[in-house]
Design a protein that fits this description.
Layout: H1 13-21, H2 26-36, E1 39-40, H3 41-48, H4 53-65, E2 69-74, E3 80-85, H5 87-110
Antiparallel strand pairs: 1-3, 2-3
Length: about 120
């Protein structure tokens, strides 16, 4: 497993926030879980469509480490594991929705490409 050689140098709250929920997949996982509720790994994978198993597993571990989602194992056969947003994770959703709205406005101005609103984080749902 990769280990950083230096410690994170976070000097402002924005950097902390971007470290916690930034990147390509974390915000998408959070939005899916917000829209769908408690999910099993296979359900998250199905909703994410084009994410690899390795990347999804790593993303879930990071979100659990940062206390944005929780993982609950059931002592059953076959084993069952469910993931859900924590209160900290739920508190991030309005921020992600605001970023999505802002991006929808300014991306249209800055690009000829059409970007559709994501149904998972659309705050109008």
């Amino acid at each position: 497993m990769y280990q950083k050689k230096t410690e994170d140098d976070i000097r402002c709250p924005l950097e902390y926030g971007l470290e916690i929920f930034g990147g390509k997949w974390k915000s998408r996982v959070l939005c899916v879980m917000n829209a769908k509720g408690t999910l099993r790994y296979s359900e998250i994978r199905r909703e994410m469509k084009n994410i690899t198993d390795a990347v999804l597993a790593s993303t879930l571990k990071e979100l659990i480490r940062d206390k944005l989602i929780s993982r609950k194992s059931y002592d059953e056969i076959p084993p069952r594991v469910e993931y859900s947003l924590t209160e900290k994770g739920k508190s991030v959703v309005p921020i992600l929705q605001s970023i999505c709205s802002w991006s929808g406005i300014f991306y249209k101005e800055d690009s000829k490409n059409l970007m559709t609103q994501c149904e998972k984080c659309d705050h109008r749902n």
